[in-house]
Design the sequence.
């Protein structure tokens, strides 16, 4: 995997990022860098603080301390929508998809939102046509163009999860955050979802939380292990599989190497 850094900067970086809820320290001084083009997995036991870390990145939760930089720009105090405009996007949960809309309509809406068309309804129709074309291209790339005209509620759960990624892509992410993209999908389909994700252009840097270690070790270029809110280890899949501390605390006796 290519770990280019545009202008020498990682796509995303945190320095001494902290979060506490009252006396409960949930994110402990996390220094993290996501190189451009990375397919980076965040793993750790239940309650390790993985989702909290993602929520701090998106701005859903304010940080208690430390900083977050997007391609060198400090976004720690930016609102979530301002971070999205700068290319920091997370997938929307299936529960936030509109069940009656078709995938084509949902992805077109997201493209219109990015292009500012939802606030300027009198714009010429050519702009909308471009948004529809863009949505169709995204659905093709994610292999769900064939169901692009069906109500979302009629799609199998796995395809709804792919639609989450499609909606996120319409926002033109530079960094895409995926919180357990394969959760709830039958094993056979989850590998297919990850194959689709792995084919995304390399200028989109990926950070994903995943509990299925087979998927992690198959698709991640690097892995960060979070334990009790702090980084226990970071490295290539081989580094992590061979790390005795990680094996003891997290991987147990399972063979992943
Ligand atoms: N809003 C909140 N208020 C208080 N405590 C919280 C809040 N959100 C999360 N926590 C606590 O922070 C800790 C980390 O939770 P988090 O959901 O980030 O872990 P996780 O690694 O994503 O877990 P899982 O793998 O089970 O999804 C947990 O102890 C959780 O109870």
Sequence:
């Amino acid at each position: 995997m290519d770990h280019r850094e545009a202008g020498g900067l990682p796509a995303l970086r945190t320095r001494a990022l902290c979060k506490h809820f009252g006396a409960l320290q949930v994110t402990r001084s996390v220094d993290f860098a996501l190189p451009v083009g990375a397919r980076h997995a965040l793993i750790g036991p239940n309650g390790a603080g993985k989702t909290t870390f993602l929520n701090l990145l998106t701005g859903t939760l304010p940080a208690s301390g430390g900083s977050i930089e997007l391609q060198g720009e400090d976004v720690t105090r930016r609102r979530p929508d301002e971070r999205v405009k700068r290319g920091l996007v997370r997938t929307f949960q299936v529960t936030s998809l509109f069940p009656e809309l078709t995938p084509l309509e949902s992805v077109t809406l997201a493209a219109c939102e990015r292009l500012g068309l939802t606030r300027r309804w009198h714009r010429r129709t050519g702009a909308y046509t471009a948004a529809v074309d863009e949505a169709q291209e995204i659905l093709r790339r994610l292999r769900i163009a064939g169901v692009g005209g069906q109500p979302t509620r009629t799609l199998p759960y796995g395809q709804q999860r792919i639609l989450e990624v499609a909606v996120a892509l319409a926002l033109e992410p530079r960094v895409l955050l995926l919180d357990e993209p394969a959760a709830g999908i039958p094993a056979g389909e989850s590998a297919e979802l990850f194959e689709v994700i792995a084919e995304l252009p390399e200028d989109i840097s990926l950070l994903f939380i995943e509990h299925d270690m087979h998927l992690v070790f198959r698709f991640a270029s690097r892995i960060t292990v979070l334990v009790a809110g702090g980084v226990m280890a970071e490295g290539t899949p081989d580094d992590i599989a061979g790390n005795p501390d990680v094996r003891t605390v997290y991987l147990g006796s399972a063979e992943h190497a």
In short: The chain has a mean pLDDT of 89. The first strand starts at residue 12 and ends at 21. The radius of gyration is 19 Å. The chain has two domains: 1-87+173-257, 94-172.
